[in-house]
Specification:
single chain; TIM Barrel; ten-stranded mixed β-sheet; binds zinc ion
């Protein structure tokens, strides 16, 4: 069976929570916000360091399993001015890399599979450029909050289709066709 989930794949929960550790109280606020927005999951993508995301995932699994949220640990890396690369570790073990909020032509990094067409922190995205890059490199399109405040978590979300049997993730490309994230 395939399920359609609403997942915000780019959030800075550590910054949003005021740089306190991912303890139960902080994680409960993140979970509450995600549920209030109707999310089925979120990726936790602090700058450079994925460890905050892994702790959030563990705390959610241990204390908030009833929420039914998929937590995806990840990190955002910067190279130069234009290059913001988000790297996620999907529940099926796949590493999923995508380009965050491009604002000019960029060199694509090897293994990049997606690109943001909407980003809550950058309302000025050049969508023509995004579509051009997505078509040229067959990237899936993503809409994410890039939240740096708790209330912004879930401002945008990406529709992710998950195949329950294989655990595969599928996301739409520029033509609306679902592409397997491998
Ligand atoms: Zn970001």
């Amino acid at each position: 069976m395939r399920r359609k989930l609403k997942i915000d794949l780019h959030t800075h929960c550590s910054e949003a929570a005021g740089f306190v550790g991912p303890d139960i109280k902080v994680v409960s606020r993140i979970v509450e916000q995600a549920k209030a927005r109707g999310l089925d999951g979120l990726a936790v993508t602090e700058h450079w360091d994925a460890s905050f995301g892994w702790v959030v995932k563990n705390v959610v699994e241990e204390h908030f399993a009833d929420a039914g949220l998929v937590i995806v640990p990840g990190r955002e890396m910067t190279a130069g001015y234009t290059h913001h690369l988000v790297e996620l570790r999907l529940p099926n073990g796949t590493t999923f890399k995508f380009l965050a909020h491009p604002n000019r032509s960029v060199e694509l990094v090897d293994g990049m599979r997606g690109i943001e067409i909407l980003n809550g922190m950058h309302d000025d995205l050049n969508q023509d450029l995004v579509l051009e890059l997505a078509r040229a490199h067959h990237l899936v399109l993503l809409s994410n909050s890039d939240a740096h405040r708790l209330e912004d978590i879930g401002r945008y979300h990406t529709e992710v289709t998950i195949d329950d049997e294989t655990g595969e993730w599928l996301i739409a490309d520029t033509t609306g066709q679902l592409v397997k994230i491998t």
